[in-house]
Specification:
Rossmann fold, 2 domains, eight-stranded mixed sheet, six-stranded parallel sheet, 14 helices, 14 strands, 38% helix, globular
């Protein structure tokens, strides 16, 4: 999932309601009268525990925090993604439903079934993620449940989709402007896109980071890595994320430091094979890694590389900032919005510019560390899961009222 920075106040404060949100500000409870916990449903992702991408991590992070705030949270999960014995996680109830495991039907079939289930569950508020799911928003709204839609980036621009997929996302983008109770965007760039192209107002809520240090170094040991002595790339291996360009660029970087490329992608075997076969021996492909192992890699990297071209705020970029990595970032507006001045920018379509950036890090380690320190300060100021959860709590309360 991807999300982007806005100026956020301390997490203990209730965020203000944007004037264009179309919702009334929720008044505090009367003295001696506490607001009941809301029944909230999160659907449209693969589910939790997070084992795939940004949307799953986002749901895991806010679900547990919303439960801690006294709310009743249900997360809808896909049967091929969630183990049969997983029915609760971090206090959130898991509803596991089937789907069709194909490139184009996996998400819509599961969201259709989830929406039908949610429509009769009497939730106070529903949050649907992924703009492709806009078509299913009316199912819950028709039964009187306020429903927000989180649209992430401009999905119709992703190279992995064929003509049909791009058409579906283009249609969904338009439907997202009027079908949900509230349209949620995750970046100033995406908010501006919906405003300028469709005149649609949206609630902008960012992604977060919780840079806890890992409890072990098992993944580093298994991969033969030393802290501070490897480059890190984390992304789905899809064309618009440019893993192939990174492999090309690294061939021209001197030295023997490993490049660790964490990720995978369903339905992309031919593309992945095309660049893995030409990667040199310094490049490691450990697959997708989550949890403590992922924290090991983010906290131990010398520098982090963000080569994406499409999306809003990319979760791995925010997380790399939080861990104080020196950032090498593809020069796209949404990436600049997140990474800001401390990052080093390159052009993904010109691999030589990435080679030069990586070589600079090797040749100037002290300056790279200083850039990483400034990135961590930026993340602390702009990204906080506690603050993000407070904003969603406010949004759900307004929707329920």
């Amino acid at each position: 999932m991807a999300l982007n920075p806005s100026e956020q106040g301390p997490s203990e404060l209730e965020p203000s309601v944007p004037k264009d949100s179309g919702l009334k500000e929720t008044l505090p409870a009367e003295p001696g009268r506490e607001r009941r916990g809301l029944k909230i449903a999160l659907l449209g992702s693969r589910g939790i525990p997070a084992r795939y991408g940004g949307y799953e991590t986002f749901m895991e992070e806010i679900a547990g925090r919303l439960v801690a705030l006294g709310h009743h949270v249900t997360v809808y999960c896909r049967s091929h993604y969630t183990r049969p014995d997983e029915r609760e996680h971090l206090g959130a109830r898991l509803v596991v439903l089937p789907t069709l495991r194909t490139k184009y039907l996996d998400t819509p079939v599961h969201t259709l079934l989830s929406s039908l289930h949610a429509a009769f569950a009497r939730y106070d508020a529903v949050l649907v993620v992924n703009s492709a799911n806009a078509l299913f928003v009316p199912i819950t709204r028709w039964t009187g449940i306020p429903t927000a839609l989180h649209v992430d980036g401009i999905e119709k621009r992703r190279a992995k989709w064929g003509a049909l997929g791009r058409w579906v996302y283009a249609l969904s983008e338009r439907l997202a402007c009027f079908l949900p109770t509230v349209l949620v965007t995750d970046a100033d760039v995406i908010q501006a896109h919906y405003q300028s192209r469709y005149g649609a107002d949206s609630r902008m809520i960012t992604y977060g980071v919780d840079p806890r240090l890992p409890s072990t170094l098992g993944v580093l040991d298994r991969l033969g890595l030393e802290p501070g002595k490897f480059f890190l790339y984390v992304s789905r291996f899809e064309p618009e994320n440019n893993p192939d360009k990174l492999v090309t660029a690294y061939r021209d970087v001197s030295g023997d430091l490993p490049l660790v490329m964490v990720g995978d992608a369903p339905y992309a075997d031919d593309f992945i094979r095309s660049f893995r076969e030409r990667a040199d021996s310094r490049v490691l492909f450990p697959g997708a890694i989550y949890g403590e192992g992922y924290r090991e890699l983010q906290s131990g990297a010398l520098a982090y590389i963000q080569a994406t071209e499409v999306g809003g705020t990319h979760p791995a970029l925010v997380e790399a900032m939080g861990y104080g990595n020196c950032l090498l970032v593809n020069d796209a507006p949404e990436n600049r919005e997140v990474a800001g001045e401390p990052a080093i920018y390159f052009q993904a379509q010109q691999p030589a510019t990435l080679s030069q950036a990586m070589q600079w890090v090797l040749d100037h380690p002290d300056e790279a560390l200083e850039r990483g320190r400034r990135s961590a300060e930026r993340a602390q100021e702009r990204y906080s899961w506690d603050a993000v959860t407070q904003e969603y709590q406010q949004l759900f309360s307004e929707m329920a009222d």
